[in-house]
Specification:
The complex is a heterodimer of chains A (89) and B (308). Helix content of chain A is 71%, strand content 0%. Chain A is mostly helical and 89 residues long. The longest helix of chain A is centred in the middle third of the chain and has 22 residues, at 39-60. Chain B has a domain at 27-232. In chain B, strands 1-2 form a two-stranded antiparallel sheet. The longest helix of chain B is centred in the last third of the chain and has 27 residues, at 196-222. Chain B is globular and about 50 Å long. The A-B interface holds A 21, 25, 28-29, 32, 36, 63-64, 66-67, 70-71, 73-74, 77-78, 81-83, 89 and B 103, 106-108, 110-111, 114-115, 117-119, 121-122, 125-126, 129, 233.
């Protein structure tokens, strides 16, 4: 699945060998934000992450794009320690 | 009684050897020993936090970076003496840990690990775009150029010894019992009346304090700071390696692990480009052969009860 996502990514954005860790962290963030083991959570998490990345880039510039995204995940984790669909914390 | 006396004697002798060591070994070995004590000090507390309190932090590099940057900025821009700025850096680092523990300690298990990693990335990105500390260009620590490695050796030795005593004291204190019960089952511990937040926060703050000092000393030794390397995840991964090679649950485990890790780093440095790969393979081989760590294996073989 990651390989397919990688191919799709390569068609859309520029990439280089060091790209990996950022996407690993982002996808970790997506899964954790939605709640581990929850399919619906990953879907919603991915949606929020995509919006956060694009809107963060639009409003705060590319410099603070990733920072904004990570902050969003942390805030959501603070409010829901088990993720959005991971049951009560 | 005799046994106890013998252990006191051996500790005193080894301390005396370590204290006079920088005068009769070369520059190279001194450098290796500095790294050894730095990894030892940080890994000892990382292992304690991960094993006994169940908090696998992937964000200890926050404190490495903050310690280094605070020391450098205070010393160069504000003219504070080096020693004092390292102390202030320690206070600042533990203060930051106390603030971070409010959002982060609500999380458990994997969520805590990811949370600390995200916090570290946020702080790295913030330093990467903060012009005052050199942003992406990095910061050259000019005031530390003249510092003799002998002073650095003694400060790292002190850090290593302090961290060993700290782990020992905390393990046998009320806090240690609380932490171990949290590590076993947090809900049950809280039901038994352990104040889980205070226990976890003090453990996190203590680990961060030592890691901040390690970062400060490393910055003085290295004289150059860059957000990507100072806040790199590889710091925490190195502490993890050191703690896990020797065995996480004992004090001696981290000492053995740190020795092996530093020796491996120097031995493999001749294979440029392959060194990290080989290092990973060796560590993987050690872990597959002895999953409980080297010291765990040895102490089981010679039927010695681990001291911790």
């Amino acid at each position: 699945m990651s390989a397919i996502a990688g191919v799709l990514m390569g068609m859309t954005f520029t990439f280089y060998p060091d790209t990996g860790p950022i996407y690993t962290l982002l996808s970790f963030g997506v899964v954790v934000m939605g709640g581990l083991g929850s399919l619906k959570g990953s879907l919603v998490g991915g949606f929020i992450m995509g919006e956060a990345l694009v809107l963060g880039g639009y409003f705060f510039g590319s410099r603070f794009q990733l920072m904004f995204c990570y902050l969003i995940i942390l805030v959501i984790l603070y409010l829901r320690p088990r993720g959005l669909f991971g049951g009560k914390g | 009684m005799l046994k106890l006396k013998r252990s006191y004697v051996s500790v005193t002798v080894s301390l005396a050897i370590l204290a006079t060591l920088p005068f009769w070994i070369g520059e190279f070995l001194r450098d290796a020993l500095i790294l050894f004590f730095l990894y030892l000090a940080a890994a000892e507390l990382w292992g304690f936090m991960a094993k006994h309190a169940g908090m696998v932090s992937l964000g200890q590099q926050i404190f490495m970076g903050v310690g280094g940057y605070t020391t450098a900025v205070l010393c160069m821009y504000f003219g504070v003496p080096l020693f004092l700025s390292a102390i202030i850096a320690g206070l600042l680092g533990s203060g930051l840990a106390a603030i971070l523990s409010f959002p982060l300690l609500k999380l458990r298990g994997v969520y805590f690990s990811i949370g600390t990693l995200l916090a570290a990335e946020i702080i790295r990105l913030a330093f990467n775009s903060w012009e005052f500390v050199g942003a992406g260009k990095g910061l050259t620590f000019r005031s530390a150029y003249g510092i003799s490695t002998i002073y650095i050796y003694y400060s790292t030795l002190a850090l290593g010894i302090i961290s060993i005593f700290l782990v020992y004291i905390v393990y046998h204190s009320k806090l240690g019992f609380g932490l171990r019960s949290i590590g076993a089952d947090e809900d049950a511990a809280s039901g038994l009346g352990v104040n889980t937040f205070i226990c976890k926060a003090s453990c996190f703050v203590l680990a961060s304090l030592i890691t901040t000092f390690v970062g400060a000393v490393y910055a003085v030794h290295h004289t150059y700071l860059h957000p990507t390397s100072a806040f790199s995840l590889s710091w925490t991964v190195n502490f993890l390696f050191v703690a896990v090679i020797g065995g996480v649950d004992t004090i001696i485990g981290s000492i053995i692990g740190s020795f092996i890790f530093v020796a491996l780093g120097y031995l493999l440095s001749q294979y440029l480009g392959l060194s990290l790969l080989l290092e990973g393979l060796v560590v993987l081989a050690i872990l597959l052969a002895v999953p409980e760590g080297l010291w765990g294996f040895i102490s089981r073989k010679i039927k010695l009860k681990p001291p911790l």
